Structures are given as C-alpha cells and as structure tokens.
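Retro notes (design track)

What went well: tokenization of the new backbones is finally stable.
What didn't: we kept losing track of which sequence belonged to which structure.
Fix going forward: every design gets posted as structure first, then sequence, in one message. First example under the new rule, 348 residues:
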C-alpha cells in the first residue's frame, strides 16, 4: 500500500514538473506584459502555465495565448517582439483590444506551429508578410488598419487553411482567389469585405471544393464574375454588394443548390434572371437591387419557397406581377420591386 502511494506521489510530481512553465516562456510573457501600457495583467504566480489566458503543453511550453478583450479589460500597447519567442504557440487570440504593431515575416517564421490567429478589432497596421505557416487553419485580421496588396505567395504553404477574414481594412490590389489553385483545398470562408480591392475577381474560386462563404462587398471590384465560381457547389453565401461588377448572372448559378444568401446589390449586373432560378430552393435572401437587370421574372422564382427577403428594386425589370403566385413564398417578410417597369397588381 505504501509503495502504491509512493508511486502515485512520484507520478503526480512528474506530471506537475512537466506542466511547470518553461523559464524562457515565462520571460517572454513578462516582456509582453511590460510592453502593455494598460491594464496590468495579473500574472503574479510562479508558474506561468497557471496565468490567465495561458495554456501549456506537458513540457511547459506555452501553446495558447488567449486574451480577447473582456469587460473592463482592454489591453493597450505593442506586442510582437516578445510573442515571437513563444515558438510552440498554436493558438493566439488577442481580438477586440487596443494593441498595435505590424506582422513581420519573422513573426510567422518563429511561430511556425500556429494554427489559430485572431487579431481582429485592434489597430494593427502594415502589410502582410509573404507567407503563413502550413499548419494555420484560421486567420482573422478583420477590423484593423492593414494595407497594401496581399502577396501572391501568401497562401502557398497554407494547406490546412479553412477560414480567412481581412474584413474592414484598407487592402488594395486584386483579390487573391488563386488561394484555391495553389494552397488549401479545405477553405470554407473567405471574407474580403470593406477594403479597397480593385480589378476583376480572377478565376480559381471553383477549385475551392469546400468553400461555403465568399464575401467581398464594398470594394472597387469590376469585370464579370468568374464562370468557375459556379463550380464551387458547396457555396451557401455569395455577398458582393457595392462594387462595379457587371455581366449576366449565368444560368449555371443553379448549380449552387446550397445557396442561402445571394447579395449582389449596387453593382452593374445586366441581362435576365436565370430561367431556372427556382432550383435554388434553399435561398433565404436574394438582394439584387440597384443593378441593370432586365426582362420579366422567371416563373420558377416562386419555387424559392424559403425566401425571407427578395429585393429587386431599381432595375429595368418588366412584366405582369399578377402572373406570379407570390403566395407560395409564405416565409417572405420583405419584398421590394420598386423602380422597375412592372405592371399588374402588386402582390400583398
């Protein structure tokens, strides 16, 4: 019995030792804490693995730094030099703070095990480095002050990337849809909204076999939609409002049978609505107002029975609205067809 108790105590001691904070990690974290102007972090115990927001592996290396803003706890200051020494980091979340600095190439060279990076809603600035580590699964840099073009090789090593958001920055240049050609086959979300991207959307999105959400609204995009986008059959959302995208909405859009949101308002789309658009039976939001669409509404439209909002206002559409049985759209809460050339009785 005594030997068994001794074994348990020794085993517990070994586990405790393995979890103890590595001294270099403790020093790096304290340097990070000292770089903050406010508020002070309550990191006072000896073992940094027990500090708030810190998780270590069995050898005492810091793997998680999780310090998003909490009520009354908004970090302010610069961060990166000291964090680069946390070379076993796989999870970094500093979102919704007042932290600043730029992402240098050395950051990703040092943190080559990083899987989750969330720096959203801070005043980080500068351009992106030339690559992200191959282990990275999620990058969220939204609501910052990053600028410049996204480097063409940025995604080449990102074989495991599933989510990438740079929403609400001042990025410019072309949207790097080549991500689907050269890197991750796993990408599910791409959000480039509220930036200064220009030019057309280049081909390549169709290679993203698992892509579910593509957002690039409120930019300066032009040209027509790449035809291979209709090959990304897992798409559930296409949100591209307030650009200068032109051309027809191709009949091939009916291949996207998982689509629930189609938001293309305030562009320069022309031509007629696809005749078989009713095959998009999962659609909840169809926002196509303020374009140059023409022709009559296809009868199949009323087969989109999950529609909650249908906005076709401010186009050049025509025809007799009485010919369509809008009562089939029982979930419809908003219908806008104003500023067109329709005739007939307006649906109730």
């Amino acid at each position: 019995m005594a030997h068994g108790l001794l074994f348990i105590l020794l085993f517990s001691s070994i586990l405790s030792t393995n979890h103890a904070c590595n001294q270099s990690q403790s020093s790096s974290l304290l340097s990070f804490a000292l770089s903050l102007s406010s508020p002070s972090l309550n990191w006072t115990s000896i073992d940094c693995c027990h500090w708030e927001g810190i998780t270590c592996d069995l050898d005492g290396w810091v793997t998680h730094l999780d310090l998003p803003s909490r009520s009354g706890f908004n970090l302010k200051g610069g961060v990166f030099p000291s964090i680069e020494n946390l070379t076993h980091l796989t999870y970094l979340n500093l979102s919704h703070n007042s932290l600043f600095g730029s992402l240098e190439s050395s950051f990703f060279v040092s943190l080559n095990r990083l899987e989750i990076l969330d720096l959203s809603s801070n005043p980080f600035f500068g351009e992106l480095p030339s690559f992200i580590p191959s282990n990275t699964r999620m990058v969220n840099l939204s609501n910052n002050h990053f600028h410049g073009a996204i480097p063409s090789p940025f995604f080449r090593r990102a074989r495991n990337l599933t989510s990438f958001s740079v929403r609400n920055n001042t990025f410019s240049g072309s949207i790097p849809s080549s991500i689907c050609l050269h890197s991750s086959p796993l990408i599910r979300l791409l959000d480039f909204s509220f930036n200064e991207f220009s030019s057309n959307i280049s081909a390549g999105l169709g290679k993203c076999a698992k892509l579910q959400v593509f957002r690039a609204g409120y930019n300066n995009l032009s040209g027509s939609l790449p035809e291979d986008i209709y090959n990304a059959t897992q798409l559930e959302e296409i949100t591209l409002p307030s650009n200068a995208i032109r051309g027809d909405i191709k009949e091939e859009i009916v291949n996207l049978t998982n689509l629930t949101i189609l938001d293309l308002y305030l562009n320069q789309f022309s031509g007629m609505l696809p005749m078989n658009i009713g095959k998009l039976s999962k659609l909840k939001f169809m926002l196509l107002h303020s374009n140059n669409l023409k022709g009559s509404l296809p009868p199949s439209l009323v087969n989109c029975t999950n529609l909650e909002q249908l906005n076709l206002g401010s186009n050049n559409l025509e025809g007799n609205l009485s010919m369509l049985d809008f009562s089939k759209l029982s979930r419809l809460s908003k219908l806008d067809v104003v500023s067109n050339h329709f005739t007939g009785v307006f649906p109730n």
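Added context from the reviewer: Residues 1-18 have pLDDT under 50 and may be disordered.
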